[in-house]
Amino acid sequence: MAADGLKARRRGDYKFQLEYRTRWSDNDMYHHLNNSIYYFLFDSVVNTYLINHCALHPPTSSQIGLVVHSHCDYFAPIEFPAVVDLALRVNKLGKSSVTYEIGVFERGQEEAKAVGEFIHVFVDRDSRKPGQHGTADELRTGLSKILVDKARL
């Protein structure tokens, strides 16, 4: 999707949200959230959702998610101190892959500060290959709850 379309995202476009309180150490030398922190936040909101809503238990699950792609479009800076709402949705749910979209919103503001994409491929923990039957049922069920209608992409 073009950056203009992503920039138009609002909180209501997402089905799950997680709060994050920025830390002083999140800032870079320009006094705004460092780019690497956004990826830390993406990983945190995705895995929080997987653990709390998809029955994923990372230390013992037979399937694990490997990140095969990620990117971020930045629209406006966030500075410490701030409360950030990470908004999550699933744009595509394949047989063994899932494409997440994460909107980053500063508390009290409707405009997205950044929008990222994160793609997991769920594989067998030992072989590191997708299972013959794809994503486990519990994962698929949980992920389908935040899957958006293709018309809203």
TrEMBL record:
Mind telling me which Gene3D superfamilies this protein's record contains?
Answer: Hotdog Thioesterase
Please give the superkingdom of this protein's source: Eukaryota
- InterPro entries the record matches: 4-hydroxybenzoyl-CoA_TE, HotDog_dom_sf, Thioestr_dom
Keyword entries, A-Z: Hydrolase
Which Gene Ontology MF annotations are present?
fatty acyl-CoA hydrolase activity
**UniProt keyword Metal-binding, yes or no:** no
What SUPFAM superfamilies does its record include?
A: Thioesterase/thiol ester dehydrase-isomerase
UniProt domain Thioesterase: residue ranges: 31-111
**The family this protein is said to belong to:** Belongs to the 4-hydroxybenzoyl-CoA thioesterase family.
Tell me the protein's name. Answer: HotDog domain-containing protein
Organism for this UniProt entry: Clohesyomyces aquaticus
